[in-house]
Specification:
single chain, Rossmann fold, 6-stranded mixed β-sheet, 5-stranded antiparallel β-sheet, 12 helices
């Protein structure tokens, strides 16, 4: 058989020429390749096999068949399997069969579960080096059906992203071939195949699209299918361009630390809204399992551009928080921390929130005021706690009265950090704020309990790694 498709428009090619052209594009006609065909025994895969087999003979390449028997249609499933075995024997090629145990399916999401099973089997055989490339018989109608299904379900704008002609080792050489072309080929060649009666039922959404929606489009215009696909492909290319910009910004401005994702939003406020929305969507997909919707993205965007420096919202199991120029996402875990004051009655190690705090009695004349520790002229017992609404401290050295809220705002301390900063309370007064345990900023010490020449000889050292 001769294939001359180099100078022809794709729409004017025969079905054989379209498939040959695709295989040639990805260098699959070399003898070193072993091509596997996902073979359901249906009309599409039977057509692809018939054409691939002719190419195999001419180009002397190896092919194998892969058949997955889901055992969902009783004797029909068994007959599909036997048809595949007989076809492999007839052509003298290997066949690999996956038999799915009856009763193992998730009935609530049957089609997705079936898809997961077959792709896992494909991946297993690929890792075992049983083939170099996998050919799948998805056609133009399948492509459009998937686009419409995603659109109806409210999926992302990358409608064609998961249905490319080539993705890794998977090749779909029939995406330019319509179902009508397949039917004509079968009729012309008198090609046997197995008919899946479940495809005629409109029980599943995809079947409804295939059996009712697509024929309506075709009745309006015989170019409708091509026009929709061409539009989606163009849109997909433009979105891919946008996502490159988004990925670059995200990589530059996002960090992940201790299960918390943080993005610098200062520059984001100046970005085009479309790009900002995409950055938010990417951030949420990377940092959480939140089901991303337009409403959630818009809510996050309002928080980001708000003039309020600190805003926190809870969505599902996650806390989304704006703190000055940063926006963070962290899984809520209310069991980790407690607001209960921690009594300190002797030297030792104490766990407080996510810190280990070391308490030690030391000699006043043998201390290093620059080591990041807090030195206080207090005695046991005292307590370590978190902030309260009306907290104030008389700070060293000028004994100025300041509220903790004002100190935290001046230092631009994120609200989630404010809630964890250890506060040393002694005789019902605040003796110190352990700010440096979390940030590169000076601790705040009460003038009354700071170290001076009149302090006791034995003082308390408070530190944390």
């Amino acid at each position: 058989m001769s294939y001359n498709s180099r100078k022809k428009n794709i729409s004017s090619l025969s079905i054989e020429e379209k498939i040959y052209s695709c295989l040639n594009k990805y260098n699959l006609l070399e003898s070193k390749n072993v091509l596997a065909l996902a073979f359901s025994s249906g009309s599409d895969s039977s057509t692809l096999l018939d054409i691939i087999n002719e190419i195999r003979i001419e180009k002397k390449i190896d092919i194998i068949l892969i058949h997955v028997n889901y055992n969902l249609r009783g004797s029909d499933s068994l007959e599909d399997k036997n048809f595949a075995i007989n076809k492999a024997n007839e052509l003298g090629i290997k066949i690999f069969i996956k038999d799915v145990e009856i009763g193992t399916f998730d009935i609530g999401n049957l089609q997705q579960h079936a898809r997961d099973i077959r792709y896992q089997y494909f991946q297993k055989l690929y890792k075992q080096k049983m083939f170099t490339h996998l050919l799948m018989a998805h056609n133009k109608d399948d492509y459009l059906e998937t686009i419409l299904y995603k659109l109806i379900k409210g999926s992302s704008t990358r409608l064609a992203h998961s249905f490319k002609e080539q993705r890794g080792y998977i090749i779909r050489p029939m995406l330019t071939v319509s179902k009508n072309e397949i039917n004509e080929y079968i009729k012309k060649k008198n090609l046997p195949y197995r008919k899946d009666k479940s495809n005629e039922s409109n029980k599943y959404a995809r079947n409804k699209i295939r059996n009712t929606v697509l024929p309506i489009f075709e009745s309006i215009s015989n170019k409708s299918m091509d026009n929709i696909i061409n539009f989606v492909d163009l849109m997909d290319s433009e979105i891919a361009f946008l996502e490159k910009k988004v990925k670059k910004y995200y990589k530059k401005h996002t960090i992940e630390k201790d299960g918390k994702y943080i993005i610098n939003i200062d520059n984001m406020k100046k970005l085009n809204k479309i790009i900002a929305f995409r950055i938010i969507a990417r951030f949420l997909s990377k940092s959480s399992n939140i089901r991303i919707t337009k409403k959630i993205i818009e809510e996050c965007y309002k928080i980001i551009i708000s003039k309020k420096p600190n805003i926190t919202i809870n969505i599902a199991d996650y806390k989304l928080e704006k703190s000055y120029d940063f926006f963070s996402c962290m899984k809520n875990n209310i069991d980790i921390y407690t607001n209960t004051p921690l009594p300190i009655e002797q030297d030792g190690e104490y766990n407080f929130y996510d810190k280990t705090i070391y308490i030690k009695t030391v000699d006043k004349n043998n201390i290093d005021l620059n080591d990041g520790s807090i030195y206080l002229d207090i005695a046991f017992p005292f307590i370590i706690r978190t902030r309260k609404q009306s907290d104030i401290i008389y700070t060293y050295p000028n004994n100025q009265k300041k509220s903790l809220r004002k100190i935290f705002i001046d230092l631009k301390i994120p609200s989630n950090i404010r809630d964890k900063i250890p506060i040393i309370e002694y005789n019902d007064e605040i003796a110190a704020l352990c700010i440096r345990f979390y940030l590169d900023a000076q601790n705040r010490i009460s003038n009354k309990y700071s170290i001076n020449k009149n302090s006791n000889s034995r003082i308390i050292k408070i530190s944390s790694l």
